[in-house]
Amino acid sequence: MLIGHAGPALRGLGSDDTCYATTNRQDALLAVAAEADLVLVLGSVNSSNSPRMVEPARRHGVRAYLVDNVTGSRAEWLAGDADGGGDPAEPGG
Q1: d(Cα 53, Cα 93) in Å, to the nearest integer?
Q2: Interior/surface letters 39-59, b for 16+ CB within 10 angstroms, e for the rest
Q3: Do the Cβ atoms of 61 and 86 come closer than 8 Å?
Q4: Fewest Cβ atoms nearer than 10 Å: which of 7, 41, 45, 51?
Q5: Among 47, 48, 59, 52, which Cα is nearest to 26's?
Q6: Nearest Cα to 84, choosing from 56, 59, 66, 64?
Q7: CA–CA separation, 79 and 56 (whole Å)
Q8: With left for phi above 0 and alpha for psi between -120 and 50, is residue 73 left, alpha or beta?
Q9: How far apart (Å, rounded) are the C-alpha atoms in residues 93 and 13?
Q10: pLDDT for 29-67, tens place per residue?
Q11: pLDDT tens digit string along 81-91?
C-alpha cells in the first residue's frame, strides 16, 4: 500500500516509545546486569540511547554508569563491596 493511501490509518510513534533496537539492547543489558555488580555503558551523554542503557540496570538495583570517554570513568567504581554499595539510583551512587 502506498503511504498516501493509508490516510487516517497512519499514526506516529508516541513520545514515550522506545525504538526496537534500543529495546533489544535493554533486554540484553538486563540479562548481563542480572549477573553483574557493575554495568559501565560506553556512549555519549548527548545520545538519546546511551542513557536508556543505564536506566534498566539501575532500576534492577545494579550500579550503572554512563561513560562518555576514558576521563569519565572513576577507579572507585571498580573498588568496593561485591553487593555494589551506594545507591544505584544516584549518579555517583
Answers
A1: 16
A2: bbbebeeeeeebebbbebbbe
A3: no
A4: 7
A5: 52
A6: 64
A7: 22
A8: beta
A9: 34
A10: 888 888 888 999 999 888 888 888 898 899 989 999 999
A11: 454 444 444 44
